[in-house]
Design goal:
Helix content is 10%, strand content 37%. It is globular and about 70 Å long. The strands form seven sheets. Strands 10-9-12-17-14-15 form a six-stranded mixed beta sheet, with no helix packed on it.
Length: 574
C-alpha cells in the first residue's frame, strides 16, 4: 500500500511538473521583427543630413516582449556601411552568436546582406535598449527594448497609468563617422555634438529647434512610468523635471528599493525606470514644466555644454490662451560629484524572496583592472593633436585593445585563435603606482588583442580602478552577457585590506553598466555561468575607440546545457 501511494505521488508530481513546463511555453510567445537599415534625411537645428536608421525611424523602433519570450529580428543592410546590432543587457544565455558587437561575436552585416538575431529573454523584465555596435553608428541607430513581466505577474510597485520611453541621445550636424575617423587620424579629441536630444528632439534651448521639442501630457493625480535610457555617445547626464519628484524603481532592468529624488544621474548604456506622480491639485492653467538633461563632467576635455529639454503639460489645462508660465528644473551643477556619489549610494537591490539578490559570497578569481587614458607617440611623419604632439589612447591594465579582422567568438569556437588573439590579458596592471595621484612619466599603452579566460561557473570579482595618467575621469563600464553586483566603491586608490571589509553583500545594486568614479574605484562580482566570448568596454564611445575595452572567454561547462551551440547558418562572414 505504501509503495502504491508513493507511485501515485510520483505520478502526480510528474504531472504537475509537466503542466508547469507546458504552461511556461504556452504563455511565452515568439516576437518577430524586421529591421531594414536605411538612409533617411533628418532635419534638426535647421540642418538636414542623411542618417543611418532602422526602418527610417530616428530613434528606432521599440522591441516589445514579455519575460520568457523568444525574439527574432531579421536585420537587412541597405546602406554602404557595415552594421551590427547589440541587444544591450539581454543575457544571451547560450546565444552569444546574437550578442552583436562587431568582430567580437560576429563579423558585420555587409551591404545587401541579412542576419537573423534569435534569442530568448530569460528571467529579465524592465527597460533595456538596442543599438548599433560598430564604430559610431549608434549615434542614430538605437531604440528601446521594453520587457513586460510574465502574464498575470505584477510590478513590485504601483501599476502606472501609462508607460513611455525617454531616450537621451546626441545630434551632430556633421557625419559622426567623419568625426571619429578624423580624430583617430590626428590623435586628438573628436569634435563634440551640437545638441543633446530627448526622443530624437533637441528642444527649445537650441537655435532653430523650438518645434523639435518632446512634449508629455499628464492627467492630474495619475502615475506615469518613465523608461529612461541614456543612448548618448560620450556624456553622462543629469535629468530632472521642474517642480516634480520622481521615484526610482529600477536600474538596468533590475528592480531596486524605491526612493524619491528630484534629479537622477544616468551614464551612457544605463537605463533607469522612475515613477512620476502628476500633481493632484491642478497647476495654473498656462503652466509648463521643463524636463531637462545636461552633462555631468569629470574629465578635462571639451564637451557639449548645452541642455536638452522637453515639456510636461497637464492635459486638462493645455488649451489655455494665456502666455505660457514656464518652470525650469534645478539641475545639479556640471561637476556635482557629491550628488553623483550620493545618488549611487541610494541604489540597492530589492532583495526579496521573489526578487532575491544572489550575491557571490566567496570568490574563485580576483582581478584588478586599471582603466583610463594614456598618451602614445605620434607616428613619424605625422602631426598629432594630442597633448604635446602625442596621440590619445585608452586602456585596461595598460592594454589598448585592438579588434581583429575576424570575430573573436568564431576563432575561439573553432579553435583558430592563432594570429587572432592571445589568452594572456593581465590579472593586474603591469606595475604598481599611485593610480589617482601624480602620474608616472611613462603614459604609453600597449596595443594588443588579449583575452581573459575563466572556467564555467567560477565566481569573479573585478576591482576597476580609475587612473590619473592623463587626468581622472568617470568611465561607465559595460559587460556583455552578464549582470553583476556592485559590491563596493570609493575614492582614491583601492585598498584590498580595508575597503573589502565594507563591501555590501546583502543588497548591492545589480547592473550591466557601472560608473567607475573619477579618481576612484568600483568592485563588481558575478558568476561566469554563460559560455562564450563577452565584450567589456567603456560606454563613452570615444574611449572605446581609443582602446578602453577587453573580452572575457567563459569556457563551456560539463553538462549539455552549459555549452555554446554551433553558430547559425547565416552568421555573416568577414
Amino acid at each position: 500500500m505504501a509503495i502504491r501511494t508513493l507511485k501515485i505521488r510520483k505520478c502526480l508530481l510528474f504531472q504537475l511538473l509537466a503542466f508547469a513546463f507546458l504552461a511556461h511555453y504556452v504563455s511565452a510567445e515568439t516576437r518577430h521583427y524586421h529591421f531594414h537599415i536605411l538612409l533617411k534625411n533628418i532635419t534638426r537645428l535647421c540642418h538636414t543630413k542623411p542618417l543611418i536608421t532602422v526602418n527610417g525611424q530616428y530613434p528606432g523602433p521599440a522591441i516589445i516582449a514579455r519575460e520568457g519570450d523568444r525574439v527574432v529580428v531579421n536585420v537587412t543592410n541597405h546602406v554602404k556601411d557595415n552594421v551590427t546590432i547589440h541587444w544591450h543587457r539581454i543575457r544571451q544565455i547560450r546565444s552569444a552568436w546574437a550578442d552583436g558587437p562587431a568582430y567580437v561575436t560576429q563579423c558585420p552585416i555587409q551591404t545587401g546582406q541579412s542576419y537573423i538575431y534569435n534569442f530568448t529573454i530569460t528571467e529579465q523584465r524592465g527597460t533595456l535598449w538596442w543599438h548599433a555596435h560598430i564604430s559610431w553608428l549608434r549615434a542614430s541607430m538605437y531604440g528601446p527594448i521594453i520587457i513586460h513581466p510574465k502574464k498575470h505577474a505584477a510590478y513590485p510597485f504601483p501599476k502606472p497609468h501609462q508607460e513611455l520611453p525617454i531616450l537621451f541621445g546626441e545630434w551632430w550636424n556633421a557625419n559622426t563617422e567623419n568625426v571619429i575617423n578624423e580624430a583617430m587620424q590626428n590623435g586628438g579629441g573628436p569634435n563634440v555634438s551640437d545638441a543633446y536630444t530627448i526622443n530624437g528632439l533637441p528642444g527649445p534651448f537650441y537655435n532653430c529647434s523650438t518645434k523639435d521639442t518632446f512634449k508629455l501630457k499628464v492627467i492630474p493625480g495619475r502615475t506615469y512610468l518613465l523608461r529612461i535610457i541614456n543612448a548618448a555617445l560620450n556624456d553622462e547626464l543629469f535629468f530632472a523635471i521642474a517642480n516634480h519628484t520622481v521615484t526610482v524603481v529600477e536600474i538596468d532592468a533590475l528592480y531596486v528599493k524605491p526612493f524619491q529624488t528630484k534629479a537622477i544621474l544616468i551614464s551612457p548604456g544605463q537605463t533607469t525606470n522612475v515613477l512620476l506622480k502628476a500633481k493632484s491639485t491642478p497647476p495654473p492653467l498656462n503652466a509648463r514644466f521643463l524636463m531637462a538633461a545636461r552633462p555631468y563632467v569629470t574629465g578635462s576635455g571639451t564637451f557639449d555644454n548645452s541642455t536638452t529639454a522637453g515639456i510636461l503639460e497637464y492635459a486638462l489645462l493645455s488649451n489655455s490662451s494665456s502666455p505660457a508660465l514656464t518652470f525650469k528644473p534645478m539641475l545639479p551643477a556640471l561637476n556635482d560629484t557629491s550628488f553623483a556619489t550620493k545618488f549611487g549610494q541610494k541604489l540597492r537591490s530589492l532583495a526579496t524572496p521573489q526578487f532575491p539578490a544572489v550575491v557571490p559570497r566567496s570568490v574563485d578569481k580576483h582581478f584588478f583592472f586599471t582603466v583610463g587614458l594614456g598618451l602614445n607617440p605620434c607616428p613619424k611623419g605625422q602631426k598629432c593633436q594630442g597633448p604635446n604632439g602625442t596621440k590619445f589612447a585608452a586602456s585596461m591594465n595598460n592594454i589598448s585593445f585592438v579588434l581583429p579582422s575576424t570575430a573573436l567568438l568564431q576563432a575561439h569556437y573553432f579553435g583558430k585563435s592563432k594570429g587572432v588573439f592571445k589568452l594572456n590579458f593581465p590579472d593586474n596592471p603591469p606595475f604598481t603606482f599611485n593610480y589617482t595621484g601624480t602620474p608616472p612619466n611613462n603614459t604609453r599603452t600597449l596595443n594588443d588583442t588579449r583575452l581573459k579566460v575563466v572556467p564555467f561557473n567560477a565566481t569573479i570579482q573585478v576591482v576597476l580602478q580609475d587612473t590619473s595618467l592623463v587626468g581622472p575621469e568617470s568611465h561607465p563600464l559595460h559587460l556583455h552577457g552578464y549582470d553583476f553586483f556592485v559590491v563596493g566603491q570609493g575614492t582614491g586608490n583601492y585598498n584590498p585590506r580595508s575597503d573589502s571589509k565594507h563591501f555590501n553583500l546583502v543588497d548591492p545594486p545589480q547592473r550591466n553598466t557601472v560608473r567607475v568614479p573619477s579618481g576612484g574605484w568600483v568592485a563588481i562580482r558575478f558568476r561566469a555561468d554563460n559560455p562564450g566570448v563577452w565584450f567589456m568596454h567603456c560606454h563613452l564611445e570615444v574611449h572605446t575607440s581609443w582602446g578602453l575595452k577587453m573580452a572575457w572567454v567563459v569556457l563551456d561547462g560539463n553538462a549539455p546545457n552549459q555549452s555554446l551551440p554551433p553558430p547559425p547558418s547565416d552568421l555573416p562572414a568577414c
